[in-house]
Specification:
Blueprint (H helix, E strand, L loop, with lengths): L14 H12 L3 E3 L7 E3 L4 E3 L5 E3 L6 E5 L11 E5 L19 H8 L11 H19 L17 H19 L3 H30 L8 H11 L12
Antiparallel strand pairs: 1-4, 2-3, 5-6
Helix pairs in contact: 2-3, 4-5
Length: 241
Amino acid sequence: MNARNPMWGDTVTNEKGRIFEELIINNPQISLLNDNNPTHYHIQTNSYSVIDLSLCSADILLEFTYSISRSSYSSDHFPIILNINTPTIIAATPERFKTTKANWTQFRNLTNTALKANDFSNIKDAIEFIETTIIGAANATIPKTGNITSRPPVPWFNDECRRYRRNMLRAERALRRNYSVINAIAYKRARAQCRFIMNKARKQSWQSYVSTITSKLPLSSVWKRVAKISGKFRPSPTPVL
């Protein structure tokens, strides 16, 4: 917003700052989340300012914890982090059998039985026996996926990206500890290199993925790739043992 005002921790006041100050004062239903920490760094003058505002409704003010990231991540604005104080319910993904890695020979041996229908007193006992036998054999011979929900993977973020990002963060910390022209130039160079490498990795990853869609690819696989590009998720069907 580039709004500066001592009301949220800045040292000067500009026109946008006066507008937002009047807006907040005259509207008690609007609350300010900023905690006076700087949100912008001007590398040429080695100065910090608070020009990015976080506003919310007054009735949900206590639902958030406001903080500023320690690193600017190749930007001159520090990322603003808002955490919800109310615990969120994370639905864990169900465990699934990896049928492609199953030991089917052992599975058949464990499910093989000489019992017949007449050996059971009723149909309920027979069903329970079949269910217990199949599930027990599956647990013993088929590996499972984990049920921990994790962040979606970033396919383009490779070791090279990780190395250049680490160099950029190291140069940023050196600049903040000891501002000098040499450190400023080193940080700008590391930031530019990091941006270049990441943009190249994104482009190459996208080209590699799109190039898999060819005329020889089955139509079902084509639509799966199109769905992934569109950000749609369709859970895999439960395998039939």
